[in-house]
């Protein structure tokens, strides 16, 4: 099907009903763009926009999108990059919703942040809702535990949760600086409420701070008092929100054992959003940027099984052909929400902006943005 007028098709792609799709497993390569003229249209639209637009591409994006990115990186690096381009009227964020929110918070009021598909959300970020977290905080307050509890939220959270953290004396962290953020929080209080990824919180606490697993409890927002007793909460060092990444949670101990049996001398490199059981037996654990730097510095001929999003693993394999690089799991799985940003959506967004029509603008409410920025700035001061 040619896409001479693609707005109607893109509205279907942004349907809120589609936001409930999580962790869809797919085999083989992603299909080619349905319109062979899309690449040329993208080039024309990009040229028309010129310096007025700055395109950010997250590492997990498709190659067809990355090809038009002015800069690539993880979520916070891209938000910083946007903040460093005040002359760009339009920031086109090829990532997911919470990333675009952070870019809007960190850029000027004159800049417009655009997300090519509004359905590009994050299942992990959705696992911690504003009302749920507020109820949790109230229940901790009823026990007199709020004063000694410091909230820390992962970058992969909504602006509302970042604002909650900023309002209550906490900070944001990334997978790169979680160790530093957690050290700061533990020095400030008796315990940490870590949102929304339980695995990053547990891995950082156990593997980098020597906290026992028994002192890491999981708050389930769907149960009274999080499913925990007062004794458990009072003795906990880490209250971990019951959230996770649907992609990184797929990797298992069996995956690691299988690849080691199949490939002699293979090194297993995983993201800290993986379960603690997987992280404990991996050779190396680190952020997306750490994974990229590690593979770049690895010796020629080395073999690597990488536990992170497939688009990035495939790109690393194509870039470093002197090394054997494979996806850790036998089941092929892309991040279903990240992959909503495709070439048709990017072309539509760029063509619309070139014609003077702003589409899919991400604008965080001023009060939310104010407190969220406090938390983000606090993280920057720790880095």
What is the gist of this entry?
The protein is an alpha/beta fold. It is 42% helix and 14% strand.
Helix/strand-derived category reads: alpha/beta
Helix content: 40-55%
N- to C-terminal distance: 49 Å
Approximately how much beta-strand content do the residues carry? Answer: 5-15%
Detailed description of the structure:
- The protein is built from 17 helices and 13 strands.
- With 383 residues, the chain is of the alpha/beta class.
- The chain starts with 6 loop residues before the first helix and ends with a helix.
- Helix 4 (75-83) runs parallel beside helix 5, helix 5 (97-106) packs across helix 17 (366-382) and helix 8 crosses helix 17 (366-382).
- The strands form 3 sheets. It has a 5-stranded parallel beta sheet with strand order 6-5-7-9-8, sandwiched between helices.
- It has helices at residues 7-13, 38-49, 63-66, 75-83, 97-106, 123-126, 130-142, 159-167, 178-188, 198-209, 230-235, 253-262, 276-281, 288-297, 310-319, 343-354, 366-382; strands at 53-58, 71-73, 90-94, 112-114, 149-154, 171-173, 191-195, 216-219, 238-241, 267-270, 284-285, 303-307, 324-327.
């Amino acid at each position: 099907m040619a896409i001479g007028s693609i707005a109607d098709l893109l509205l279907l792609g942004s349907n809120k009903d589609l936001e409930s799709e999580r962790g869809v497993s797919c085999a083989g390569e992603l299909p080619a763009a349905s319109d062979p003229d899309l690449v040329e249209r993208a080039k024309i639209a990009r040229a028309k926009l010129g310096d007025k637009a700055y395109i950010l591409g997250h590492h997990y994006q498709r190659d067809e999108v990355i090809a038009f990115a002015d800069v690539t990186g993880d979520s916070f690096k891209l938000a910083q990059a946007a903040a460093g381009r005040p002359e760009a009227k339009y920031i086109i964020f090829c990532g997911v919703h919470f990333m675009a929110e952070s870019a809007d918070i960190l850029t000027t009021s004159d800049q417009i942040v655009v997300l090519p598909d509004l359905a590009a959300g994050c299942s992990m970020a959705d696992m911690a809702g504003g009302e749920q977290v507020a109820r949790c905080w109230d229940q901790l307050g009823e026990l007199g535990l709020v004063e000694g509890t410091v909230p820390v939220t992962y970058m992969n959270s909504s602006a509302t949760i970042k604002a909650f953290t900023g309002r209550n004396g906490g900070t944001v962290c990334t997978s790169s600086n979680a160790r530093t953020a957690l050290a700061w929080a533990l020095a400030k209080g008796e315990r940490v409420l870590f949102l929304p990824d339980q695995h990053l919180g547990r891995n950082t606490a156990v593997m980098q701070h020597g906290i026992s697993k028994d002192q890491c409890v999981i708050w389930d927002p769907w149960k009274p008092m999080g499913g925990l007793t007062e004794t458990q909460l009072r003795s906990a060092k880490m209250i971990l929100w019951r959230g996770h990444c649907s992609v990184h949670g797929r990797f298992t101990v069996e995956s690691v054992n299988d690849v080691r049996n199949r490939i002699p001398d293979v090194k297993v490199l995983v993201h800290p959003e993986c379960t603690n059981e997987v992280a404990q037996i991996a050779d190396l654990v680190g952020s997306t940027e750490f994974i990229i730097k590690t593979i770049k510095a690895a010796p020629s001929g080395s073999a690597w099984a990488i536990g992170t999003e497939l688009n990035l693993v495939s790109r690393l394999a194509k870039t470093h052909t002197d090394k054997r690089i494979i996806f850790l799991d036998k089941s092929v799985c892309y991040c279903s929400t990240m992959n909503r940003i495709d070439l048709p959506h990017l072309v539509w967004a760029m063509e619309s902006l070139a014609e003077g029509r702003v589409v899919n603008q991400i604008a965080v409410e001023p009060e939310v943005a104010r407190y969220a920025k406090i938390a983000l700035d606090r993280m920057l001061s720790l880095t």
